[in-house]
Amino acid sequence: MKLRDPRRGPAAAWPAVLGALLLLAFAALLAQHAAAARGWTANASWLGEALAALDDRRPSAWALAGGAAAALLGLWFLIAAFLPARRSHLHADGPGDLWIAPAAIEAVAADAAERAPGVLHAAGEMRRRRLRVKALLAPGHEAAVADILESVGARLGGLGELEVSVQAKEGAR
After folding, report:
1. Within the chain, what is the greatest distance between any pair of CA atoms?
2. Which of 62, 82, 102 is a domain's end point?
3. Is there a single domain that holds both residue 77 and residue 141?
């Protein structure tokens, strides 16, 4: 049985929340208008005042800017609705359905790099399919970069196409 790939939240989640908040604000505006129209409040209708302000035949600069901003926001919502959600984990090669979180890959890579000769401290940083290992080398161990690459590559061998780079600097004497 093939399970779905683990994925992040869809790209349209934040625009959907923003749209829901805008609809909620519009509902409150309509409720205030209804309360003013029925005489339940002494205040004038906000909606009526806003529509009276728009009763000019010539378009004003703020109305054009607001329309352009609304069009761009609508386009952004439309694009976000069709973007697929990105994978949150990397698939490991093998007979099972094993997925590994980027934080776990960073930790395993840092541990493998620290076990290489001449490395004092290491940390991993994962971005999409790129893993950057930052290592602090003991003084006089410039050739440790190849050992770090070999050690990390051996430990993360079953993760398919993962681009590994090493950024090393020598510690102070």
Report:
1. 85
2. 82
3. no
User: pLDDT for 18-65, tens place per residue?
Assistant: 888 989 999 998 999 898 888 888 888 888 887 777 777 777 787 788
Question: Domain check: are 67 and 101 in the same one?
Answer: no
Distance CA 164, CA 82 (A): 31
Same domain for 47 and 111: no
Strands 119-127 and 99-100: unpaired
Beta strand pairing call for 130-137 and 163-170: parallel
CATH code at position 150: 3.30.300
Reported pTM: 0.59
Q: Are 149 and 131 in contact (CB under 8 A)?
A: no
pLDDT digits (tens, 9 = 90+) for 138-155: 887 766 788 888 888 888
Which residue segment(s) compose the domain that 62 sits in?
A: 13-82
